[in-house]
Design brief:
With about 300 residues, the protein is mainly α. It is built from 15 helices and no strands.
């Protein structure tokens, strides 16, 4: 197990080295806030959909389809359970901080961190499980998550929740999988090349975003550590325990636990900024949880693999 831990640590460290490139470029002002915003749009609207579509370019297997359906149901159930768990925390904080921290503990960086993590640790064949998680994440975060941060359903749009780039990519990719339709050679190659940008580009963007954070202030805020521990340790351990009956499908089990251990999603700070929910501390949570995940992710990943067999 220790050997596997070192292997996973090396893979996670590789991701953080890419992140360090973005961090240094951000500190040197070679990547500005406008630049990270534009690269994030490229990831969200082009790169991530390409990797989702490409993941569906695999042989049809009824058993795999059933597993994917089970995975979607499992993800939905866990978001409901997470919503119950986070209500136990941060009761003494002011309302804005309380809501933001609870949101940050529920929603992990499935797109920018989850997909690269699964690809690096488990290989391309497991990406399709991350895609299902991303699909559910998009629906839940733009419905429950939006209303949670907004404080009401005012302004919520079902159309916006359903017409996210990730879901639209599933709408394209799933029929191709079900009908065993392969994209034309040139198009498939282009989609695969663009999708391969996901890991390095996402890490550079996260690193550049972290360069704007006050690391000293993060390390002095005990509540940020509490919120990070909730997201990086308690949530994935809870997930691993509840999922024990699903160990018969090692890929689904391991992928679900690893995704549960992903650091706080960047959309947390976006929503906090939009709804005035302690945006500075919330951005700090995103940065600190991402920084601490280099220590927690290898342990959680190896433990999940060992439990899954």
């Amino acid at each position: 197990m220790f050997t596997r831990f070192l292997v996973v640590l090396g893979q996670v460290s590789t991701l953080f080295l890419m992140m360090a490139v973005g961090f240094v470029l951000g500190k040197w002002k070679k990547i500005t806030a406008a630049g990270t915003g534009e690269m994030s749009s490229l990831l969200l609207y082009v790169v991530a959909p390409c990797i989702i579509i490409d993941s569906f370019q695999t042989d049809y297997d009824p058993a795999l389809l059933r597993t994917l359906g089970l995975g979607a149901v499992v993800e939905l159930v866990f978001f409901f359970l997470y919503a119950m768990i986070v209500k136990l925390f941060f009761r003494k904080e002011d309302e804005d901080t309380r809501i933001s921290f609870r949101f940050g503990a529920m929603y992990g960086n499935t797109g920018f961190m989850g997909l690269p993590l699964i690809q690096a640790i488990m290989g391309d064949e497991a990406l399709i499980f991350a895609v299902v998680s991303l699909m559910v994440f998009n629906v839940v975060v733009w419905s429950h998550g939006y209303m949670m941060m907004n404080g009401s359903s005012h302004g919520f749009s079902l159309k916006k929740a359903l017409l996210t780039p990730g879901l639209l990519a599933v709408v394209v990719g799933l029929p191709l999988f079900l009908t065993q339709t392969t994209l034309p050679g040139v198009l498939h190659t282009a989609v695969r090349y663009i999708g391969s940008m996901n890991t390095p580009l996402a890490m550079v963007v996260i690193g550049a975003q972290m360069a704007r954070a006050d690391i000293g202030a993060l390390l002095r805020d005990k509540k940020l550590f509490e919120a990070s521990a909730l997201k990086l340790v308690l949530i994935p351990v809870f997930t691993a325990i509840v999922l024990l009956p699903l160990r018969h499908d090692p890929l689904l089990y391991t992928a679900t636990v690893i995704l549960a251990a992903a650091p706080t999603a960047g959309i947390t700070s976006m929503f906090a900024e939009r709804f005035g929910r302690a945006p500075e501390r919330t951005a700090g949570l995103v940065s600190l949880s991402t920084l601490l995940s280099i220590f927690t992710l290898p342990i959680i990943a190896v433990a999940a693999e060992a439990i899954a067999g």
